[in-house]
Amino acid sequence: MTQAILHQILNQLEALKPEELQQLNQAIQKCLAAKETVQKTSFDQALLTSG
Based on the structure, what is the number of domains in the chain? Predict the structure, then answer.
């Protein structure tokens, strides 16, 4: 299911204008940054817990 959704999104990229692609890029970068922060926090907590 996820692959099908990704494929649909990739196909729709062709129809976007440059400014829309820029907005999409900014949204993706924010999402990635948030997920990386969560992963780092989890990793740091695991290190503290393990001693």
Answer: 1
DSSP string, the chain: -HHHHHHHHHHHGGG--HHHHHHHHHHHHHHHHHHHHHHHHHHHHHHHHH-
User: What is the residue whose two structure tokens read 């993706």?
Assistant: 28
Q: pTM for the complete prediction?
A: 0.65
Please check whether residue 11 lies inside any domain of the structure. Answer: no
Whether residue 37 has pLDDT greater than 90: no
Q: Within a 10 A sphere around the Cβ of 24, how many other Cβ atoms?
A: 13
Please indicate, yes or no, if residue 4 is contained in any of the structural domains: no
